[in-house]
């Protein structure tokens, strides 16, 4: 309901803007395809759900941005303009002089995020695991039935959700961030948060992982728990300074903003003839009926 009210207010003022950028999935499509101001929508979620197919067949001409190339795969019919990877302010998270001594798990406690797999990996390697993650109500049963018994039997410290001020120390103290996902991750912000701190990432090859992590440089992309365990022995080959440097080169907010400015300019140029036609038609008196 609130989204509908907000979109209606923007629609009524659309003529006040040169360009509109939405982050509300497909909700703006119908309303804003009926007005002249150019617009783009960044899609942030998973797109492999059946209900997406008819929507993007009907609105196949509307321009959209993906947050990873892998996110696009279920919807080849969409009008993909560009992939813009997420970015963080360069100084939001930074390496801290802390001796790494544990594995880290960051984000959400959910089946698709694979905390149970992270626990098994840490247990096999004999390395403590620190978990900084929230538990949404929908995932409470998963935590109670699968995770809580595992935490009680191995060296796992559940910290709970942490804020940005706490993440630099948490990630800098980690030997690696474990990302044993089991779903088509659209991006995975935790991976670049780790990179900002110079921390290697061991991620399962699902969704965007192979786009974000450069195997053998900023971490390792593996297929399963066995691969993750094997990658641990190779962590010493990685340079934490190089990992931070690659973050600065690829995943800053400045780079993200520059990418979006390029998208805006391209779409404005493409829409200029149509906008001129609309303006000219508006100035021509209508013939009396």
Task: Give the SSE map.
Elements: H1 2-12, E1 20-22, H2 29-32, E2 39-43, H3 52-58, E3 63-66, E4 79-83, E5 102-108, H4 115-125, E6 129-134, H5 140-153, E7 156-158, H6 164-172, E8 174-179, H7 189-196, E9 201-204, H8 209-212, E10 219-222, H9 225-232, H10 240-250, H11 253-283
Parallel strand pairs: 1-2, 2-3, 3-4, 5-6, 5-8, 6-7, 8-9, 9-10
Report what the structure shows.
There is one protein chain. By secondary structure, this protein is an alpha/beta fold. It has 2 domains: 2-87 and 253-283; 102-250, Glycogen Phosphorylase B (Rossmann fold). It is built from 11 helices and 10 strands. The strands form 2 sheets. Strands 7-6-5-8-9-10 form a 6-stranded parallel beta sheet, sandwiched between helices. Strands 1-2-3-4 form a 4-stranded parallel beta sheet, with helices on one face. Helix 4 crosses helix 9 (225-232). The longest helix is centred in the C-terminal third of the chain and has 31 residues, at 253-283. The two termini are 41 Å apart.
Features of the shown structure:
289 residues; alpha/beta; Rossmann fold; six-stranded parallel β-sheet; four-stranded parallel β-sheet; 10 strands; 41% helix; disordered C terminus
